[in-house]
Amino acid sequence: ASFEEAGVYPFNYFVETDSCTKGFHQNVYIPFVGDMYYSVSCGTGSLYDVTLFDHSNIFPLEVGSMYNSYAYKEGTNSWQTIVAGNSVLSADAQLPPGDYQFREIIYSTLTTAAPPCTTIVNVNLPDKPNADFEIVSPFIPACINDVVVHLNNLSTPATGLNYVWDFEDGSTNYQANPDKVYGFLPLSPEFTITLTATSSAGCTDITQNTIEIQDNGLWDGVIKPFLSSSPAPPVCMGTPISLTYFNPGSPTPPSFTWYQGSIPFTPVVSSSSFDVTQSGDYWVMGSDEFGCLAPSEPVSIYFTPLPTPTIIGNPAQCDSVPFTLTSSINAASGLSLEWERSPGGVVGSGSTLFQTLPVGTYTYILTATQNGCDGVSVPYTVTVASPVDTPT
Questions:
Q1: What does DSSP say about strands 204-214 and 142-143: parallel, antiparallel, or unpaired?
Q2: Is it the case that residue 110 has pLDDT exceeding 80?
Q3: pLDDT one-digit tens code per residue, 208-249
Q4: pLDDT value for 390
């Protein structure tokens, strides 16, 4: 049987033989049941303050007669006694980090027949925190509102620590490796970032780094720069429109990333002008060496499509026999047609061209003009040959 509390426990048991059964009664005295707990707190320097507490259950008759012995050992080393004596209810030790066993042995000087009780607990005392971090930023100084500053935590040990970041702007963060964007300028030239690392035992270490935050001089954050268009749309498809960044009263950024919708054009260019040949919404992001950004207002660009005439006819004709060529699109209001023949120059202007030609090879081009935009057909070749004599 096992017991969790000291006391007097009655036992009844019986012995049976072939002819009879006999009962017995016996009291079992448990003078004590050993137990121990401990506390760990952060001591001075690299040491921990460890306290072992007796938590044994003692029968009242034994109070004042108990002998307590406390010890510890690290790893495979031998046991080191902390304190021993009558009715010693706790023991204190200052220990460096390591893997320990803590032991309490108790026995009674009154009931000497009772065997000692031994309690052993395993405890890891981790390395005390050493707070450390680096500031990772693509821009130093970093621009207000635009640059994401990453804080790379280098604290040791790598696990088992809690973190508090103070960014000196009224904000805090509890992540291990946070990102930070500063929304206003520091009162002094730099912000001081403070990291506090705390272990489960309450040990803390504090470290600091500074970062300079740069004001955005590219725009005021309210009225966006705009894009001018030259020539102003609409223009004919195939004629480029030049877009130019413009922000009166502010410096021109040294770098630009141009976008059609959400898709950037690569690479980043240094020119504040950009030629486009497709309809769409365009805008540009200006940037400087501090990572400051200046997004322009978008501008909608559209192009007038070109008419697409095609010449229809028979490419093989006879000498001095009239023939016709026809346009795939008809002349109408706002659309004009012009036929050009080589050799021969301009030879017509309607939807249908009537021709009678001598032997030779002729190339035609049809130009359709609509809304000031010219669409030119694919060259069309007609071969005029002599009639074949009638067979006899």
A1: parallel
A2: yes
A3: 999 999 999 999 999 999 999 999 988 999 999 999 999 998
A4: 57
